[in-house]
Design goal:
The structure is a single chain. This protein is mainly alpha-helical. The chain has a domain of 49 residues. 69% of the residues lie in helices and 0% in strands. It contains 4 helices and no strands. The chain is globular and about 40 Å long.
Length: 71
Amino acid sequence: MDSLNVVARRNNPDYMQIAGDVRKKLGLRFKAACMLKQLTLGEGLEQAISEWLEKYDKSQGGNVERVSKEN
């Protein structure tokens, strides 16, 4: 993805920015994996978060999307 698309996402109301601190080793591994797959960090985060939420929903028997829409 080129830098113009990143800027377009940043200005798109359908996207939001998420930030957090992770251990350095984990962050470096994640960045390297994204580079190897030719993904932006945002694309990699979307994939990782989507997979995590699927596992969460299965383990909790619920649906986070439903809860987030209610609020």
